[in-house]
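pinned: reference chain
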Amino acid sequence: MADTEAARMVKLGYKLMSEEHGPKALVRNLQRAEEAGFDFAAISDHFSPWIEEQGHAPLAWSVLGALAQATSRIGLMTAVTCPIQRYHPAIIAQGAATIGLLSDDRFTLGLGAGERLNEHVTGAGWPGTAERHERLSEAIEIIQGLLGAEITNYRGQHFQLDHAKLFDRPERKVPVILAAGGPEAARMAARKSEGLIATEPRRDLIEAYRGAGGTGPCYAEVSVCWAASEAEAQRTAHHYFRWSVTGWPVQMELPSVEAFAAATKHVTPEMVAENVACGPDPSRFLANLGKFREAGFDHLILTQVGPQQAEFIDFFQRELAPKLRG
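pinned: its structure tokens
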């Protein structure tokens, strides 16, 4: 495929970091993002921030209702919701159908296996990897079945459904996408959902998804930090985003903001900047985004770290969007 064709096909998304912003700020940020021309926006769905400095964790579903009413064009999605413990999958299906109606079919449901930090709060413990994957597989079957009006009862090893029906459900089924950190999860996304989402520029995930018959969009979250200088951006990224350096095997297991503080005690700003494009130079951002495009991702979610959201959105509109869209 020619580069110009790839440029025309890419969709650009804005990340609503509910760990860093309160509910009213998230609504204001989305309105700015819509005005700036973002195609869609994705909101994180967490009970807790990763580290104390982030300072926020509003309920994503309440915010989504406000977002749907405060905008008219921009797409909405969760990135991602865990349906295996804190929520029963039937409740997620009901929430997704409601947001689909409120947004006039602008909503996509992103699902993932979650992490201890947000799911242990119910006091039910945190299952091992194999059980989490079993739970996720059952949860997807329930959610897809309810959204498509195909099931009312379900008896699984971990979840049950008893005479359930969504009375308010959009005619166009809400699409479901699945987070994948490895090829096995990517193949599950192909079998059980309408798309894939990842956080690393890994071609093997795309190949596994396409190889298993997946034909839907492939989303990627790309972390960036715009600031007036590279040094300022690195300090900001370190302050709010140093938790990301721990890697997914650690992130899924640590139980609290205190644990993440201890795990990142020796992380430096330079270490964070290895994975987060920092500063005012658009070429850094474009190079980082280019890695994901080359891997095969066609929906890029830009995650601006820190409080300078309005400045980043202006930068996106002025410097990034024209080049990314060719």
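why pinned: The domain at 1-69+218-326 is CATH 3.20.20.30 (TIM Barrel). The radius of gyration is 19 Å.
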